[in-house]
Each structure stands twice: as C-alpha cells, then as structure tokens.
Amino acid sequence: xxxxxxxxxxxxxxxxxxxxxxxxxxxxxxxxxxxxxxxxxxxxxxxxxxxxxxxxxxxxxxxxxxxxxxxxxxxxxx
Length: 78
Known about the structure:
Layout: E1 3-5, E2 8-10, H1 12-35, H2 44-77
Antiparallel strand pairs: 1-2
C-alpha cells in the first residue's frame, strides 16, 4: 500500500526510513550539544558530522532489515 504526500507516493519502508532518520538526526544533534566539552580540541561541527554519520548508518541498517522483512512477508503472502 502506498502513502501519498502531495504528488509523491511512498511505500511503508521508505517512509519509515525517512521518519527514523529524522528522529535519529535530532537525537544526534542533541547528543552533540549535551556531550560537548570546551577542553576537546575537535570542533563542534565535526562532532555533529560524526554523529549524523552514525545516524545515517543506523538508518541504512534499519532500511535493509525492513525491506527484507517486507520481501519475506510478501513472498509468504502469495
């Protein structure tokens, strides 16, 4: 089943990946500001980029599992 937002149609897996990435991105930025220390030599922007990279990696892994689960469910449904 497709979910339509404006003129775009999304399946469950891509839409859920988008939501997961947005939530993880907000958490990554919040964690960066929570854990930042003035004595660290690394700039804050680098720490944000590292945390966003981890959020992107977690979203990618989540997407792989969701797509595989949907494919398995569709295979057994038919």
